[in-house]
Each structure stands twice: as structure tokens, then as C-alpha cells.
Specification:
Helix 6 (about 185-205) packs antiparallel against helix 7, helix 6 runs parallel beside helix 8 (about 250-265) and helix 8 (about 250-265) packs antiparallel against helix 9. It contains 14 helices and 9 strands. Strands 2-3-4 form a 3-stranded antiparallel beta sheet. Strands 1-9 form a two-stranded antiparallel ribbon. Helices cover about 50% and strands about 5% of the residues. The longest helix has 20 residues, at about 270-290. It has helices spanning about 5-20, 60-75, 80-95, 130-140, 140-150, 185-205, 205-220, 250-265, 270-290, 325-340, 345-360, 370-385, 390-405, 425-440; strands at about 30-35, 60, 110, 115-120, 120-125, 170, 300-305, 310-315, 420.
């Protein structure tokens, strides 16, 4: 399959999604049938490992669509640019007037297309919001970005801001209860630090700077002697999955967000920036202090030092809630490598990349499109960074296989073997990965579509 054929596939999918958005003033539906490309009358049953509460039916979810919109803007096709801009303008102006300022997007909330309202009341950002997306939202509605920065304060559980939760209310000015678990995942602190850094760079509000400093200190004071962080700071011993469980993947996620945030603050807060970068390096060391065995295919997402090193391994194919695919963290490693040139990060990512190049695709698992898209994106980014043709050859070979698996027609299924499109499963990453692979193959030095590092 040549690059023109790959691009033809992704463009047909984008054309369908644009057409499906017309009744909803540019917002893309999250769930569509693969026959008439409309929102189904009933939500299909979840695939294995998918939680019903994470799905955006019958609605639209900007965080699910981010990599798709990024792809459309990079392709510089007039119709695609216009559609992406219409989506973003509609969201920024129409969908952000919530009680707290937090947006209806992410893991537990979305915009209800049929009733034109917020659906769900729990804000969980799900992934890092990239700089280009914040810039677009600010372009269309500066105040919504500022209000979002204000609303992030509701992730703190108390007025003293001594503990936060990854969950917060969107439509009521209330704080999460303390509960038996803290739910203060480290990667989410990185999300908020970056969000506040963007808001501070635009507004110079001192309260946003105070929030950045407070959140930077939060996990720094809770790291272990190896620089590793727990999956959450407070869990009862009865919750074995969380109690005293180290999270290498979340540790390195926070490092990436600190480095990106430091770039935003460089000209305003040089001392804070220096501190953020130094702490990021400690977290990177912490990630490598986990007992990974890349050559043996052991890529650890969580483990218990106090329980004989019991660990959870990241799969290549077949992620599910709470268990990321290995490509997820490998791309974060490449993101950080571009900042630090730490060879350990590139070596780790290459070890993961070899598995995506060589490991057979399982035919008895409904593999989410996210796994496929991120795996392909990893191979493409390895080629971009190393200039080694083996990665491009592997990416093109995998692209052909994935098109055969996910594209029975012109719109990809949300997972292997299912007959509907669903944004929550990650087809946005698949369209991005296919397009970036083809564009890199056509002209590596002038590829307009960058890597997407939001999955962290």
C-alpha cells in the first residue's frame, strides 16, 4: 500500500466525520454507525475493559477528537481547516459557559448533541491538553481559558488546598469529599500545571502562579528515595490495587508536563523554571529505577516494592481501563527525549517500538483503535527522531495491516472487530498515526503533522 492510498483512507474518514457534524454546528459525534454514519438509536454494549461511564453518547468530546483536529489542521486542505476551526469555535464560544468554568470533556463529561447541553457533572481531564489547542480556544474565547484556570481550583478538596482529586464538579460550586482514597493521580497534577502555566502566560495572574507552585510542590514532597511516585498518595490497605503502589508511568508523565510547562514560563519565572526542570530529571530517574526489562518485553506501569516487586505490565495490544498500551508511555519518553536527549528514553521507546513492528496482532481481542494509532505513531516518531529507515518500513507495513483490520468501509471501527465508530476508543489517534506515517514517508523534512504526545 503506497502513501497515496493511506492518505485516501484517512481523508475519506475525515470527510464522513465532517458530514456527520453538520446537524450539530460542527461538533463531531462520538458514536456513529458504520452503515449510515449517524448516531445510533441505542449505545452498543461496551467492549471488554471499557467502562460505560467513560463513553460520550449521544454527544461530542473534544479531548477524544484532539488528535483528529490536529491532523485536519496540519493537512492544509481548505475544507478540513474550515471544519476544524468551526468545531473549535463552536466549542469555545457555546460549550464552555459552565458554573465552575471547567469544560464538558474528558473521561466523564461531554457535550450532549441532541439536547445541546453539558452531559455529566464530573471533570476529569483524561489527557494533557496540547499547546496548540489552548491557543485555539484562547483565540476564540480568551475568557473561557481564564475561567477554566479558575475552575481548576475545584480539584482541591479543601480551602487550604492540602489534597486534590482528579475529579471535580463542572456544574456546581462544590469540592470533592475526602473519601477513603485520595484519587490524586500524579499525571493529573502535570495536566493542571500545564493548564495554569498557559493561563498565567496569557494573563499574568498571581493566583495562577500560586497554583502552579503549590501543585509542583505537592508530589515533590511525596516522592520516594528513588524519585518514584505512588499512583495516589492515600489509599486504605483494603484497596490492594492502589495501596502503596508505585506508578512509573505516571511519574514520567509528570516529568513531561513539567518540561513543557517550563517552556511556557521561561521568560516570566526563571527560578521556578529551573526548579521544574531539575525536578523533572529526578522523576525521569525515578521512572528508570522501576524494574523494567525492556529486552524481555516487560514495561511496568505499576508495581509494589513492598510486595515482592509485584507489577502490572503494559500490553502491546489490548489495553483496557487502567492498563495503558506500552506505546502510551513510549511516546511520553520520546516527548521528553526531545527536551533532554537522555539516551535511556530513546532506548526504552525503541524497545517498545520493536514489539509493535514484530508482535502479531491478536485476532481474538477487540483492540481499541488507540492502541493501534499510538503504536503506529510511535514507529513514525522513532523514524522522525532517528532517521532510520527500519522504523519507516515497519510503520508502513503496520499501517497496511491496521487499515485492513479497522477499515471495513470508509470510517474506522472504534476497536478491532466491532461495527461502530466510537471516539472514546481512540480512532482519532489512528487517523493521526496513519496520516503522519504517510506524510513522513513522502517528505520527512517537511512533514506538517507533528507527533501527538497528549496520551500521558
Amino acid at each position: 500500500m503506497n502513501t497515496k492510498e493511506i492518505l485516501s483512507k484517512t481523508q475519506k474518514a475525515i470527510d464522513i466525520l465532517i458530514q456527520s457534524s453538520k446537524p450539530y454546528k460542527g461538533l463531531f459525534p462520538s458514536v456513529l454507525t458504520l452503515t449510515d454514519y449517524k448516531i445510533p438509536d441505542q449505545l452498543p454494549p461496551p467492549i471488554q475493559g471499557q467502562r460505560s461511564g467513560d463513553r460520550s453518547y449521544p454527544g461530542s468530546n473534544l479531548i477524544h477528537d484532539e488528535a483528529l483536529l490536529m491532523t485536519m489542521l496540519a493537512m492544509d486542505i481548505e475544507n478540513y481547516t474550515r471544519a476544524a476551526e468551526q468545531y473549535l469555535e463552536r466549542f469555545a464560544i457555546h460549550c464552555t459557559h459552565t458554573v465552575t468554568g471547567l469544560f464538558p470533556w474528558g473521561e466523564h463529561a461531554f457535550w450532549h448533541l441532541l439536547e445541546d447541553r453539558v452531559a455529566g457533572n464530573t471533570h476529569d481531564q483524561l489527557r494533557q491538553i496540547p499547546l496548540w489547542l489552548w491557543e485555539k480556544l484562547y483565540q476564540y474565547n480568551p475568557r473561557c481559558v481564564e475561567r477554566f484556570g479558575e475552575g481548576l481550583d475545584y480539584h482541591w478538596k479543601d480551602e487550604e488546598r492540602t489534597e486534590y482529586s482528579r475529579h471535580a464538579s463542572i456544574m456546581s460550586e462544590t469540592r470533592q469529599g475526602w473519601g477513603e482514597r485520595s484519587c490524586d493521580f500524579p499525571r493529573h497534577s502535570g495536566f493542571y500545571i500545564f493548564d495554569w502555566s498557559f493561563a498565567y502566560a496569557k494573563t499574568k495572574r498571581s493566583d495562577f502562579l500560586d497554583q502552579i507552585i503549590r501543585m509542583c510542590d505537592y508530589w515533590w514532597e511525596k516522592r520516594d528515595d528513588k524519585g518514584l511516585l505512588l499512583i495516589e498518595s492515600r489509599s486504605p490497605h483494603t484497596q490492594d490495587r492502589f495501596y502503596q503502589t508505585n506508578a512509573p508511568g505516571q511519574t514520567v508523565s509528570l516529568a513531561a508536563s513539567l518540561l513543557e510547562s517550563a517552556d511556557l514560563l521561561e521568560q516570566y519565572e526563571p527560578e521556578l523554571v529551573s526548579q521544574m526542570r531539575q525536578r523533572a530529571l529526578i522523576y525521569i530517574d525515578g521512572f528508570f529505577n522501576a524494574p523494567h526489562k525492556p529486552d524481555e518485553g516487560i514495561f511496568i506501569t505499576t508495581y509494589k516494592k513492598e510486595k515482592d516487586g509485584t507489577f502490572t505490565n503494559m500490553p502491546i495490544w489490548g489495553s483496557r481501563y487502567g492498563i495503558w498500551p506500552a506505546s502510551y508511555v513510549a511516546l511520553v519518553c520520546l516527548c521528553i527525549y526531545r527536551f533532554t536527549e537522555d539516551k535511556r528514553l530513546l532506548t526504552w521507546a525503541e524497545a517498545v517500538g520493536k514489539h509493535y513492528a514484530d508482535k502479531p496482532f491478536p485476532h481474538d481481542v477487540a483492540v481499541p483503535a488507540m492502541d493501534a494509532g499510538l503504536g503506529l505513531g510511535l514507529l513514525a516518531d522513532l523514524y522522525d527522531i532517528t532517521d532510520e529507515n527500519r522504523w519507516l518500513e515497519s510503520a508502513l507495513k503496520l499501517a497496511e495491516k491496521l487499515i485492513d483490520i479497522y477499515f471495513d468501509g470508509d470510517l474506522p471501527g472504534g476497536a478491532a472487530g466491532i461495527d461502530w465508530y466510537e471516539s472514546q476508543m481512540g480512532p482519532s489517534f489512528l487517523i493521526h498515526g496513519l496520516t503522519r506515517t504517510a506524510l513522513l514517508a513522502e517528505d520527512k523534512d517537511n512533514c506538517p503533522l507533528l507527533a501527538d504526545y497528549t496520551a500521558r
